[in-house]
Design goal:
three-stranded mixed beta sheet; globular
Length: 101
């Protein structure tokens, strides 16, 4: 995930981003702020993903542009559509990156 979204500077930030946005939106229909996250927001004027460490608390701040994020994910899928069509494929670069983590 970090290779696709360089603003996420490591496995910890990528995992917290995934937990905040994916788990929150899919399971709670809202953003889920984890213990290590002080702020999570959506703003189409923002970069695709912005991730910063808040100085006072040491917690992460995430801002996501939903429109830019959807475009980026769509581009990734369209670049390698045959892999995404095969539900059993473990060959996709994102899957391989997760397996190495």
């Amino acid at each position: 995930m970090c290779a696709l979204f360089p603003k996420l500077r490591g496995a910890h930030e990528a995992a917290k981003f995934w937990e905040t946005y994916r788990h929150g939106l899919l399971h709670q229909a809202t953003l889920k702020a984890a213990d290590a996250v002080i702020e999570a927001a959506g703003n189409n004027a923002a970069p695709t993903i912005r991730c910063e460490l808040e100085n006072f608390s040491g917690k992460l701040q995430f801002v996501l542009s939903p429109v830019k994020f959807v475009r980026k994910v769509t581009d990734i899928i369209e670049e390698d559509l045959s892999t995404w069509e095969d539900t059993a494929s473990g060959q996709h670069k994102m899957v391989q990156g997760l397996l190495r983590s």
